[in-house]
Amino acid sequence: MESEIEKLLDTLTGASPVLLSYANSKIEDLDARRQSIANEIAKLSADAVPMEKMESISGYLDDWENVSFEDKRQVVDALITVIRATNEKVEIEWKI
């Protein structure tokens, strides 16, 4: 995408207003796609739970009834991205 944007910018020297308008539109589309991909990469990177963390979490799960509320909250934060609840259903989006 970066190379497409650069190529468009290079061809704009002495371009007509119609061509400039088209190029601006195309650059905006490419930039929006680039932003979307960058956001998705950031989200996937942030959502990934490392194996070491999973191993420490499994220790809490083995003794869940005796784990403090704060520790339970931290385990849930590490495992769940979002919880959506309605009158009809509850959806859990897991990080694993």
Textual characterization of the structure:
The chain has helices at 2-10, 17-47, 51-62, 69-79; strands at residues 80-85, 90-94. With 96 residues, the chain is mostly helical. It has 2 domains: 1-48; 49-95, no CATH class. The chain has a two-stranded antiparallel sheet. Strand 1 (80-85) and strand 2 (90-94) form a beta hairpin. Helix 1 (2-10) packs antiparallel against helix 2 (17-47). The longest helix has 31 residues, at 17-47.
Q: What is the mean pLDDT? A: 82
From the spread of the alpha carbons, the general shape counts as elongated
Number of helices: 4
State the end-to-end CA separation. 30 Å
Domain module tally: 2
Number of strands: 2
- Sheet with most strands: strand arrangement: 1-2
Structural class: mainly alpha
Share in helix: 55-70%
Task: Please trace the helix and strand order, writing H or E for each element.
Answer: HHHHEE
pLDDT < 50 stretches = none
Q: What is the percentage of strand-forming residues?
A: 5-15%
Largest sheet: 2 strands, antiparallel
Over all CA atoms, what is the radius of gyration? Answer: 23 Å
